[in-house]
Structure formats: C-alpha cells, structure tokens
Amino acid sequence: MTEDDAPRFDFPGAFDLSGEVAVVTGGSRGIGRAIAHGLAAAGAAVAPVSRTAADVERVASELSEYDVGTCVATADVADEADVVDCLDTVADELGRPSVVVNNAGINPEVALGTPDRVSADDFDTVNDVNLRGAYACAHAAADHLEATEGSLVNVASVGGVVGLPRQHPYVASKHGLVGLTKSLALDWAPSVRANCLAPGYVATDLTEDLTGNEELAASIRERTPLDRFADPEEVAAPTVFLASDAASYLTGATLAVDGGWTAR
Ligand SMILES: NC(=O)c1ccc[n+]([C@@H]2O[C@H](COP(=O)([O-])OP(=O)(O)OC[C@H]3O[C@@H](n4cnc5c(N)ncnc54)[C@H](O)[C@@H]3O)[C@@H](O)[C@H]2O)c1
Q1: Which domains, ranges and CATH numbers included, belong to the chain?
Q2: Considering the chain, what percentage of its residues have pLDDT values greater than 70?
Q3: Atom 19 (ligand 1): residue with closest C-alpha?
Q4: Which residue of 23, 53, 107, 152 could cross-link 194, Cys pair, CB 3.0 to 4.6 Å?
C-alpha cells in the first residue's frame, strides 16, 4: 500500500451537518427534543415539529443557543394534510428539508393488554401515528430528500425487532417501520439514505409508568446489560451519526440503541 491510497478520514468534519435542514417529528419533548438539540449542535437548521405551537416555540427558542436556523411548524402526523402543510412551512422558512427524523410515537394505555382487551380501533390509533404518520412524512418529504440527496431516520424500537407481550399495536407499528425503512432505502438509493434506530428503554414521559415503578424499573435494568435506562441524548447522538456523512454507506439498516437488550 502506498501513502496515496492510505485510508483518509475527515473527523469530526464527517459529522458536521452545517447547511442541512432537519425536521424532527415529536420534537417537543423526550427523545425528539434531544434529537433536535443534537442535530442543531452538529450545525443543522432544525424544525422541531409537534402538534402544539407553544411546545414547538419552547424548543425552537432553546435551539437559539446553537446559532442555527429554526422555525415553528406544527403537525399532527396522523393528519396527512397537516404534514404536507408543515413541510411546506419548513421549506419556505428554512429551505428544503434534507434530514427527516420520524420520531413521533405513542403507546397509550388503551393499546396495552392482551388481544381480547385491545380493540382494532385502538390498534389503528397507534398505527395511524407510529406507522402511517411516518409514511405520510416520508411521502411528503420525498421530493425534498431527492433534491437534496438527503437522509431519513425512523425511530422504531426494540419492539420493532422482537415481540413484546401486551403491546401488539405498538410492536406491529414498529416492525412495520423497520420494514418501511428497508423498502424506502431500496427505492431511494443511491441518492437518499433511509435508516432506523431501535432504542431500548429510555427515560422519558412515555416510560414514566416504568421508571416510576421501582419493581418494574429494576426488572428492566436487570434485563439490560448496561444496567440502566438510556438518557434521550444517547439516542440523539446515533441519530446525528445516521444523518451525517460518517454514515455514508448505511442505508436500510436498523441500529439497536438498547444497552445490549437485544444482544441476549
Ligand atoms: N422512551 C422509550 O423508552 C422509547 C423506546 C423505544 C422507542 N421509543 C420511540 O421514540 C419516540 C419518542 O418517544 P419518547 O419516549 O420521546 O416519547 P414522548 O411521549 O416523551 O414524546 C413523544 C413526542 O411525540 C409527539 N407526538 C405524539 N403524537 C403525535 C402526533 N400525532 N403528531 C405529532 N407529534 C406527536 C409528542 O407531542 C412528543 O413530542 C417514539 O416513536 C417512541 O415509540 C421510545
């Protein structure tokens, strides 16, 4: 090997997202808020999207510390017209989105239980947000991503790669999201990359029933090789990686961010 063909790295430049325009659904709190901060810290202009303008305004104002662009765009991802309007707003205010993070997700109490208890309507409620909502965003963003040679990151779950008892709607939606990501990766290659994250247990509002129950929390920690819940920032950092040039040969992949939970 000569010096000329020696491998070359541009670190940390390969992680730099300056010039990118990112949309993060469910960006008002928890993992999505941390992802919005992470992408902004890496230099992207970021629209933290959620349903309530006041919540979005709060996160948008937090992002001013990074000296990047931001805007207040709202959407209920279960409402396709809302999603289209939202992406138009972002494109008008910040430029064409080049990074789209489908993070909005729910797992409501009514959808937890054995199939005799959870109705098909409750199944739909979860899937309308977690899966159909992600597809609506991908569909509405497709032209922007194509034009910018951008990247999509879907936030699935360990429930997207293994079954979990009494969470059928959630698990079906997250398995669907993993499959959707693979198909998008095929149809969008080579110009647009699409990848998935599969977080384990992360301390957020979504898991407060677990973190607030010492017995349940202990059993989750015991099942998790790293012996703790993740902080939202620990899901945000791999999102920055997947959106960046450092992940230039990753597409259609599902990255477990689960403290080793699925390694068992
Ligand atoms: N917390 C965990 O342990 C964990 C583990 C694996 C995967 N996840 C996934 O990570 C994502 C974020 O989870 P979180 O723990 O931060 O949850 P969270 O409940 O703290 O936040 C969810 C966010 O999504 C938004 N949202 C909900 N429904 C929406 C809709 N219809 N339209 C637009 N926005 C909507 C909420 O306003 C909020 O901003 C979800 O997709 C979740 O399934 C979470």
Answers
A1: 9-257 (3.40.50.720)
A2: 100
A3: 206
A4: 152
